[in-house]
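Q: What would this chain look like folded?
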Amino acid sequence: MSNFIVQFPLITEQYQEDILNNRFEIGRKIYNSLVTVTQKRYKEMIKTKLYRSIKTELKDIYSSTSKENATHKKELCKQLNGLYKQYTLNEYSFHNDVKEMQKHFKNNIDSFTAQKLATNLWKSYDKLLFGNGNKVYYKRYETLNSLEGKSNNTGIRFKDNMLLWNGLKIPVKIDYNNLYEYQAMQNDICYCRIVRKYVRNKYKFYLQIVFKGNTPTKIDKETGEIKHQIGSGDVGLDIGTQTIAIASSTDVKILELADKVQDIENQKRLIQRKMDRSKRTMNPDNFNEDGTIKKQGNKKVKWVKSNHYIKLQNELKELYRKQTDIRKYQHECLANEIISLGDNIYVETMNFSGLQKRSTKTEKNDKGKFKKKKRFGKSLANKAPSMLLTIIDRKLKYHDRVLNKIDTYSVKASQYNHFDGEYKKKNLSQRWNYFGDLKVQRDIYSAFLIMNVDSDLKGINQQKCNERFDNFLKLHDIEVERLTGKKNLSSIAI
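A: My prediction, written as structure tokens:
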């Protein structure tokens, strides 16, 4: 059964806020203590010759294309799981570990909340052991901002419009005149989560209730119509680090992702420069003559922070919050718009983590100067294209649909020409495709091709392209006309 989340503000008094802040800090310390305990076992395990030999053999098998090693691989995985069991690296062991820690804080943190902390840590280990994780990290001060229970019967629970948790009884602000909130409250509750957010130099607290079932239908108050209805037909998405091109039978668009966050990014840069100047003024002994930070061996560098610095730090924190909220809001709105265009949505499989990494090659340009090794880390952090795809997929699942991810290497949408069925590699700087007298924007054309993929998602259907191209060209010209004369990103090239 699917679940959905609705967030409600908590009506807190000062003493209740102090208690909640204290419990968040206790939760952080329990989490970090659990990291310390489990890391000792993990480090002991990876030191063993058996573990190293198994990992080496598995690496060779995964890099090989031979199918003869299937039996051997199965045996190695069995041995590896035996090691994990031997060193008690599993979720249930983590629950036993945290049980002993929780006893010392039982007046603040209940056993179920402590178990959820252990479960969250296990998710990190799950990525480390079975996925692409590299390291398990500690939680820094004031970075643990959510605590959740396992059910609505014990621990953190909601009852009679109140949050109940270990002696705390806090009113929850629910607008029953709001149809969405009213419909949500008619569903059964899975569990509750307390969230704190730093808003305008002060922590505000919210209760997130995880309900059973599908999300309620949103109704437009003015028209009485259902909001965000799913469309019908094929939709192609060509998503980049800063832009997204959309192609459907009714609309064609190329948009900048989360365009409203850039102004905040500029404000962040100014504040960060001020903070850097303040830090250097207050800590001259921590810097070398060339401006770099002095290395002090294993000693932690101590920083003196002025009141001005602390004020700027709080301003920066508020900007980060605004940026996060604006980005998520814009992605939610765009996802609704995309889903309204069709129910079969196609997108290329993107490796965003690879695009974040710095280049390993040292190259020179035509003038003999070294090229920057920076790639798209900054733009990916600001625009969060992966978040948009996650939101689209989540919204499609409400309608029993999924986001169709095509095979990038076999489709090669950026190189394909549907007129002759041939592939031709283009430079990234080439932003337009020329077909005789026709001129088509590169990203929009890629979205059109993605819209017309075969059912196996491994090739482009040339017949579909030919049938739909005239309609696409009309919509393309309308979009180009809309963008002409406006201040657009250089990658759009309009």
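Residues 14-47 form the longest helix (34 residues).
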